């Protein structure tokens, strides 16, 4: 009984007790615009048109049929661009109808080629044109008398409003028309945003007159699909949050059944981080969705039980994105429980992948969960989830120090999966991830190459609404790496350009903007530090800390160290080390150790710095962090030099020299070369020469040797050695009592 | 001196001076004829009801007919013709014959016919529109023209009270709410006795601040408006006061006031008062259909089957195609557990008036009863869409999801409901239960305690709180809760079905026993024996206590002797150490 009531009274097409005419499942309605399209098709089938023109017109058919309604002016212009003669004929036909009587329109419909008879024409029933015509004829034949009359009236208005200058009357501007000039779906121009502005300027009417008209089902679907796609892939091209909200409100006002609009509303409010509206819209959407799914089994795969599970899951993801981990956890548990109760493995799989994401976000180890998830996903043939899991595993593996070949192998496997199922989104992520991994391993050339690969790849989406480059996180990450890589090489001009691009692509209010903000700050900080403008670097620290606490602390320690406030710096570094050991952030641990060692140098505790450096080196080697390892080696060599074993330092240096010259930053290269020079100076064979000369008792030359040695030691700040040599020199000088000839003048 | 001057605050009590009722009666009679001439049926009805409540006037006291101008005389025939067409709902025809008329009366009727014609066409259009593209576009085409014409006249200051009202209506239909409010205020100043203008104003005022900011004419009718407004804004106490003063002023016989008071009592869930008033109303006005749905709600809550059945049959005899009738029948079937039929009748009510908020919610309840959760969700959603402030629908949504075992998901809905009714314990208890299910004990405790603090209707909050404490092994807190619970149950007098006094006593007995407070324990155990389900345990406890006492024979028992006289056990712990988690 209940189901009878339900189907009788809870029809999706029913709002507020009024059954829409839509109840027959017809999505197409005859509108004046559709009549114009029909007229065009009619002209095309009957009249002779030259081949190139026909080709152009043919290309037009699909967009015209599927696109939103245009005004007559737009429509005629579009046709005119392809074939002026046909446009004229269409106009004439419309004129006949609009300026004639009702019977003219009826006559037009009766003259349309019936798709069931004309076998050889383009309008045969199975063709695109034929299908459209059938739809239209069917819809037309279903109209009641008053509806036909209304259609005719609106046709007249449609036709005349094109000629009559709009005065007080509301101009029916189709908001959704993608372009004024042409309807090419692949066109890159997107002028929706501009159009609304223009409209507001052109019509300084009262508020009520500015109200947009309602949208047809198809128009609304197109609008939603387009905006949702743009939100996902290129947020800048989507409508501004406020404008989109207006549109959606308008749509819902006329079409309260359009549940998808609530979902878009949810996405839109996520953009502006509005938890209130986004929660509200999300729940509203699912409340609505339950209705449309209610016709199936109540708890099975298709029934509304399914949407319940996904409702809870979506709620979890919402809380996750707002950083409410506890709430997210509760929602997720709920989703898992319901999914388990109804044996929905696919949903469970989704839950599982969210679970490990959540665990990761909370900062705990979730690799076991992830592995399980991947296995299960593979079992249930969910390639997306499987490779997402693998990617997540790769990320964790990279942090935990898995070797490069293992990671790359895994990524290669997923790549095969991606290409097989054309998961373009994951391909992008995979490339960005490879970039990050190479960068982490200190292979800047490889990182550079991968980043370029991603950036030069054109979008793989089948329908891309004119989006050339997607504005996804992957792109942001790749671009940030690129900027940092350029900054390492000191190419600040290029860096500025990349950052400018990033700013344009990811405006500050958007989701991924934090990535480039941090990157920008880091680069600026490094630059100021390198230039020795510590007072300029200090404000950056606060900004960095706002975006990333750990990084901020580290930078603060660096500034303090540079300003010789060692005690404070030391306490910060210690705190940082404890924190990083907890979170297993190896890179940071190594960097902290290096900084600590540097602090030890300041107090001449070179030997106490050694254990730190050795530990750091071990860690870096273990995690294959080549860049950091090389830097550690540099530090080690310096310490050895200071401890007076320049020979050791040199051998150590030789080992690090090659990777540094190949992949290192300009700064590292410079430092390495300088250090080599110093070591070589320190190893200066003076002492050997001195022994030879002393054997010969060649005192004059010996005096020169001591002089040079003293000078060198002085420049190396080895005071005791310097003093010793100076003393020896002094003794000899007193002994010889003759002015020394310039050293350089003799062999 | 200056100090004295500054400190003295004079509280000015504005006493409504009702002049004499005679004057009011006269005014009412004249406004009735004015409205009648203009086809404003609802205002006529309201004024007539009120006039009927007052004593009839002697013949020579009857108000003189309104002055008759030259223009009126000229338009007399056209107006008569047009009015007859108007009464037959041939609005276009009426407007056609009035187009050249100059008198105010004719002008109003002319404009009003055009407006109504547009509205009628709009309704007709909705039935056969050209698909979704047209759907939203269906609107009263006349509105725009009317607005242009009326605004011209308005700025020229040529509008009288009735046309101002019409202008306001047009503005409201065009969603120009701010302007509409101004115009309606102007209309009430121009013609304070026209109830329609007040009623329209009432629909546009959303909060008390907005109400206070308006400057309204100082007239006796304003008190009616304020009382109505207070009811709308859920300020029931103020509303009841106003109505009381109106009754005292001489309107005691008015069925309008009685019905309004009854609705107000219904809103604050004072069921007995409301029922009494409705019964009185039925006596005075047996064929009344308005507000009978509210009456049936009350009967439903009280499970008064025969009365509800009588009411339903009675109303069907009067007019079965009324929203109220359908709602009453729906309630009737619901009470008889014939939920499918009930839903059917609520559906019918909605077909008669899609914006009937109550029916959506009630239908949701029916679907809930039928375990058709998805349909219930839909119905509640519709209710919320019609009125976002419908706390019952939000609560219903929460319940639905709770039934679907989604305690986290339903939190949102309960929170919404709680937001709208911050002092309603039912929402708080529901919230507490959800939190408890999610193992969020701190929040759950807060909710229960708050539910108790705001006055628990169902007396369940404390019991739940106590059980929660019991679960968490917080025996002191649990005992305190049980003590208050028992006090609460006994103080309220009537026996509640679900009262679990025995559970509380049992726990308290064990608690005192454990804490070696044997006198209190034995008291509780004795009380336990009053209840069937706890009798055995009570006896067992008593035995245990006597055993322990025999063994110990300690003089310390003397200590408690004076205390044992006291009926309520003295608190060993500080009075409800709940301050830490009261919100």
From TrEMBL, chain A:
Entries under InterPro entries matching the protein: Apc5 (IPR037679), Apc5_dom (IPR026000), Apc5_N (IPR048968), TPR-like_helical_dom_sf (IPR011990)
Main location: cytoplasm
Comp. bias (Basic and acidic residues): 192-211
BP terms from Gene Ontology: anaphase-promoting complex-dependent catabolic process; cell division; positive regulation of mitotic metaphase/anaphase transition; protein K11-linked ubiquitination
Record keywords, A-Z: Cell cycle, Cell division, Cytoplasm, Cytoskeleton, Mitosis, Nucleus, Phosphoprotein, Repeat, TPR repeat, Ubl conjugation pathway
Pfam families assigned to the protein according to its UniProt record, in alphabetical order: ANAPC5, Apc5_N
Annotated metabolic or biological route of this protein: Protein modification; protein ubiquitination
Residues annotated as domain Anaphase-promoting complex subunit: 262-361, 600-657
One GO term describing the cellular component: spindle
Keyword hit for Amino-acid biosynthesis: no
Localisation: Cytoplasm, Cytoskeleton, Spindle; Nucleus
Region of interest (Disordered), ranges: 184-211
Domain of life: Eukaryota
Domain Anaphase-promoting complex subunit 5 N-terminal: 30-162
Family membership noted in the UniProt record: Belongs to the APC5 family.
Described purpose of this protein according to its UniProt entry: Component of the anaphase promoting complex/cyclosome (APC/C), a cell cycle-regulated E3 ubiquitin ligase that controls progression through mitosis and the G1 phase of the cell cycle. The APC/C complex acts by mediating ubiquitination and subsequent degradation of target proteins: it mainly mediates the formation of 'Lys-11'-linked polyubiquitin chains and, to a lower extent, the formation of 'Lys-48'- and 'Lys-63'-linked polyubiquitin chains. The APC/C complex catalyzes assembly of branched 'Lys-11'-/'Lys-48'-linked branched ubiquitin chains on target proteins.
Protein name per UniProt: Anaphase-promoting complex subunit 5
Organism from which the protein derives: Myripristis murdjan (pinecone soldierfish)
Higher taxonomy: Eukaryota, Metazoa, Chordata, Craniata, Vertebrata
TrEMBL record, chain B:
Pathway: Protein modification; protein ubiquitination
A biological process term (GO) from this entry: protein ubiquitination
Keywords for the protein's UniProt record, in alphabetical order: Cell cycle, Cell division, Mitosis, Repeat, TPR repeat, Ubl conjugation pathway
Cross-referenced InterPro entries: APC8, TPR-like_helical_dom_sf, TPR_rpt
GO cellular component terms, semicolon-separated: anaphase-promoting complex
Residue ranges annotated for the Cdc23 domain, each copy included: 23-262
Pfam families documented for this protein: ANAPC8, TPR_8
Signal peptide (UniProt feature, chain positions): none
Similarity section: Belongs to the APC8/CDC23 family.
Name of the protein in its database record: Cyclosome subunit 8
